[in-house]
Fold this protein.
Amino acid sequence: MEGADAPEKTFYFALVPLNSADPEDEMGDGPYLFTLPGPNPLPRPTGGEGDLPVRVQRNLTFTNTYASQPALVTLNATKTALGKDMEPEQFSFVIYNADESGEPDGVPIRTGTNISGGDSSDMLFTPGVPFEYTQAGGPYYYLMEETGSDGAGWTLSKRQYLIRVDVTDDGEGNLSAAVTWGSKTPEDGAFPDEAEWEAYTENSGGSWPAFRNDYLAERLAEVPIMVRKSIAGIDETDRVFTFLIEQVADELGTALEPEDEMAEVQPPSLEITIAGDELEDGSRTKSFTLLDPDEKTYYFKLTEVDESDDEWSYDGRTYIVIVEVSDVDGQLVSTETYTVPGKTGTWEYANFLNTFETAGITFSFLKTDREGTALEGVEFALYACGETHTHSYGVTTARGKKRRAQG
């Protein structure tokens, strides 16, 4: 019988006389002599009527052909993402021919990727091309694994799957494939005994190899606070200016309620100090750290400590620092915007102005002659001289009356 690895089968034949009108009129036990038309008719025997065919004895040969429908196996897997949704086709996977220990043979024979995004997805290998088996055999071994490197916050699955396929023929023209798999991680060393393997099912939601990738961004966000300090009334001072920052509920500066979620800040309280001799460029930046923040907006109130006295007035403005925390390739970063409650517009920093004013000083002037009599119409000029500046105050008396000047 023709056909590769055709199964053993017994065939039965029925012989029917040519001159029988009944197809069920079978002949008795053989052997039989079959007549086949010859190339030339023989002479008619004496006393016979009509031509007779040549009687030739032959062995009968029947040729049966056997073919089975191929078995098709589509290997699927699932991908899950923990910590962040994945993008479609973000991750890649391969299948190799392998030996029974899981050692891959050569280059990948199938490549695949996650079909969709989100927190879970089926994987499609060399889009939808199944493995085709045209005859019984096996076992066939395949190694399935994820490719790529950790990075941008993602830790890729290191799990490997060894898949076994056994193909059988039911003798009725149908091939079928039994698929089982076992898995291991690098820590496991070797694949488990095949007796512990799971049976693979192609239906969605069946027992498929599963890969999980974990996402964890660097859970720290550095928040730089920039304060610009300006002074008026004097060019330099050795005075120290201090600013406080505290978390609030919104851009209006509403205080947090006890039940409100607070960001964990390190250090817990922040003071920004600018000494007078640091005012050459007029600004200072100091950072604090948000520990394990969410990707959302935080609000902080920035104020100057009021240490006003007879010479210095302090800026009473309140700035709200709007801090947007976002994930950029696995690193949490912050973007800061400065606003003033009740005013429109935003700034790149907080600007505070302190003014220096000297206390008022009263001077009395009287111009007399030698006898002590007050002189009228006399003008005076008063100069206050310093290292870097000079102020003049004009003073005039009229009719001998005293005029005062404040400097």
In short: Residues 334 and 347 are 16 Å apart (CA to CA).
